[in-house]
Amino acid sequence: AQKILEAKAHEMELRVQRRNQLMIRILMMPVRAVTYIGSCFLASPMARQIWLYATLLVCLFELWSCALFWAFSRDPNKLYVLEMLLHLDHWANAWFLVDALLQALDKIRGGEVQEPSDGNSIMRKVDRQQQLTQKARTLFTRLPGFSSCSSEFLLKIVDVGSVVSKKKGEVLYSEHDDNTSLFLILEGEVIFRDGSRVTYIREGGTLGEFKVFDLEQANTEQRVEVVTDCEVFELPEAAMKRFLEYSPADRSILTEFYKAKLQELETDDVRSCRRSMIKLFRSIAKFFTSGVQKARAIWLQAVFAVLLIVVGSFAHGLVLSRLREMEGEANKDRCPHDTEQLWILWISGFCSEAPHHESTLVCDCDVPCSYCWHDR
């Protein structure tokens, strides 16, 4: 009976967790859409250049449209067209700011590394593997849980494991694979999908640790996809358990740590959301402090975009004020009747044109208009 009550309580917690995750996903959909569009432009500088040429043409239109504003001010139809074009121009000018941000990201990201084609490429690859193995050893010493283990245990698991290279778009493991390994992300980023739960794991993150320590049952909904080119350190479960049998102290440390971590993941959604927001703000602050300040041309483009937006807003305001003045002048010349009475008088006007019909319509207004006939 106690197990049944615990299972029901756990099921209720999972329902609340799924509902909270669904709400967070719905709230983050616009952010993901903007991120996807930004990644497309970031991956294709040529597309950004073509778009900027188009926005430059629109900005040139803004300059001469402001100069010819008073020439158009007497024609209401032209004013409406000008108001619509200036409204669209605000969005075009904003893309200059977007391109400035993307250029700063290019500065931070740096150029792409080309693979050497000489005879020393094999030796360089070997050195690369040794560097990644050394990096895995360093990350294990800093990894929470493993940092409390003995140095002999860490040396053994690093010597048994291997470095695996994955390209962007590949699947590390899916629901069809019987994954029994512990993975440590050395470089790059992967996305972990567990049913409705989605998590991005970057350098220094681990995967599969709960299965290795028998804290999680086999789940057919788990899937890990590679977001960027990755270097992953893979440690087989059999070797891990063999070393843990000879080191009971390390086994108890890791088991207790991952039990607490699993409980925290199941119950603390708000804290993880807060941590994600903090990481986002930190990355934005790092971008503005280390990326934008390195390029003066980026600042000039951003200032130019702000100047165009201000000029466009001023011209847009002038057009709107002129349209209101023209509408006010037009309303002064109209009859103060309401819309229904105007329709009735308009229909009666057609009837009064017939020779056999005479209509007597009296209007109280003093302004002569086509809808009113005094004592006709």
Query: What share of the residues does DSSP label as strand, in percent?
Result: 5-15%
Please state the overall shape, judged from the principal axes of the Cα atoms. Answer: elongated
Cα-to-Cα separation, first versus last residue: 96 Å
Tell me the radius of gyration: 34 Å
Largest sheet composition: 4 strands, antiparallel
List low-pLDDT spans. Answer: 110-119, 349-363, 370-376
Count of strand segments:
8
Spatial strand sequence of the major β-sheet:
1-8-3-6
The topology string of helices and strands comes to: HHHHHHEEEEEEHEEHHHHH
Q: Please state the structural category.
A: alpha+beta
Mean pLDDT: 67
**How many discrete structural domains?**
3
DSSP summary: helix tally: 12
The level of helicity is: 55-70%
Structure description:
The protein has about 375 residues and is an alpha+beta fold. The protein has three domains: about 150 residues, no CATH class; about 100 residues, Jelly Rolls (Sandwich); about 40 residues, no CATH class. The chain is built from twelve helices and eight strands. The strands form two sheets. It has a four-stranded antiparallel beta sheet. A four-stranded antiparallel beta sheet has the order 2-7-4-5, with no helix packed on it. The chain is elongated and about 95 Å long. The N and C termini lie far apart (about 95 Å). The C terminus is likely disordered.
